[in-house]
Amino acid sequence: MLLRPLSLALAAALLTVPAVAAAKAPADPGPPIEAILTSPPNVPPATNRHKPAKVVVHLQVIEKEMQIADGTTYTFWTFGGTVPGSFIRVRQGDTVEFHLMNDPTSKMPHNIDLHGVTGPGGGAASSFTAPGHQSQFTFKALNQGIYVYHCATAPVGMHVANGMYGLILVEPPEGLKPVDHEYYVMQGDFYTVGKYREKGHQDFDMQRAIDEKPTYVLFNGREGALTGDKALAALTNQSVRLFVGNGGPNLVSSFHVIGEIFDTVRPEGGTVEQHNVQTTLIPAGGAAMVEFHTEVPGSYILVDHSIFRAFNKGALAMLKVDGPEDKTVYSGKEVDSTYLGDMAGPNLHPVDVAAKAAAAGTLTVQDQIAAGKALFAGTCSACHQANGEGLASVFPPLAKSDFLAALSPDDLVAIPLNGHTGKITVNGKEYDSVMPPMSQMTDDEIANILTYVLNSWGNPGGHIAKDLVAKVRASTPRPAGAAH
Ligand SMILES: [Cu+2]
């Protein structure tokens, strides 16, 4: 306790010299503060400090298997056990003592490159850490902003593709303007050997990563991480700030919230504010601060507006706003089914249940029906309607369809797999239209959907096995260049 009175005396002495000189004196950082780290989508509270401090960060690297989609697992490499990694919040001028611990169960060495660090490698050179070890380095947070951090151990692309990234906020000295909600959302692209939503454990596919052809593009590391009962929440007439990062490794994000206009964006995490923005570009290895005000209740859907990524690779999240309607701003009507498809329900849990049962060899028709019902909502209901009635003279009914009842299982499977064109008569009415092929779906998805259809709305029952779908798929000639 010798230093304390000394520095107080120094401060007292400084009070007598002109202010300009006083500003240059090193402020007493006080006792070290342990940083509060949060898991996504949560953001640590504001530092509420008016002077720099010494801040200690303990971040643990954990390699772990988690779900990437319902029924599909992947071995993620994480900072803090989540993808993206723990959110770190400090203040400009802080001295950050960084401890990187690599869990003993890890198979790989890891390190960290923080874009908020000034110094070669952003900390990477000082933080190479073998499993079961810990490294320590210290840096001064010189620049304010929202910064990406990521692992930079070779092969760097693979470490990033496995989920090794997160955000560190360096608050400006005066802090950020208070808002009602702050959330942490980070996009990443993922490369698996199996196709999108292929069930079971999926391995990393290096060639796909090199070719920049992701199987998944996700917010917060899992399809459905922020939809249904896990959606972000706010009330009407509130202010929301999103810290939106993009870990990549490959894609840039055209970040958009369907039904909102960003009042303020700090593009690329910089200090210049942009106003009234519809879609903001977030580079790989970059981040933005996005702010808006909620006026009308409902579901607001966060997407990468490279729109196939949203609807066919998982880049879709949701903000649920509750509160009274304001018909002067918007006349009303939910968007759920239009935009959310099979993510509109509370979750796709039945898909997970069916996948596990299939893996265990205990799959029942009931499991298939439940999974098929959840998927039908997104894939087929747009045309055939949720109740299977279709739309008069445009989309034939699946309910009590005599056409469907007369099909062999092989011919039934061929319809979603290859589509259908040409004149058909369903329940005495003629249709001459086009149903597009949906071969992007996995075998088990098609099997479960058709099992649901067969067992609904007065149809004859029965079930379709995924092996049958695989057989029909293999026996169908496909044009060169078709994916599957
Ligand atoms: Cu790593």
Q: What's the shape?
A: globular
* Class computed from helices, strands and strand pairing: alpha/beta
Q: Are there runs of 5+ residues with pLDDT below 50, and where?
A: 1-23
Number of strands: 23
How many strands, which pairing sense, and closed or not: the largest β-sheet?
A: 6 strands, mixed
Based on the structure, what is the oligomeric state of the protein chains?
Answer: single chain
The portion of residues forming beta strands comes to 25-35%
The small-molecule ligands in this entry are: copper (II) ion
What share of the residues lie within helices? Answer: 10-25%
Radius of gyration: 27 Å
What number is the mean pLDDT? 90
If helices are DSSP runs of H or I spanning 4 or more residues, what is the number of helices? 13
Determine the N-to-C terminus distance. Answer: 71 Å
What do you see in this structure?
The chain is α/β, with parallel strands linked by helices. 22% of the residues lie in helices and 30% in strands. The protein is globular, with a radius of gyration of 27 Å. The N terminus is likely disordered. The site of copper (II) ion (CU) has 6 residues, from loops. Copper (II) ion binds next to loops.
Question: Could you list some keywords that capture this structure?
Answer:
about 475 residues; alpha/beta; 6-stranded mixed sheet; 13 helices; disordered N terminus; binds copper (II) ion
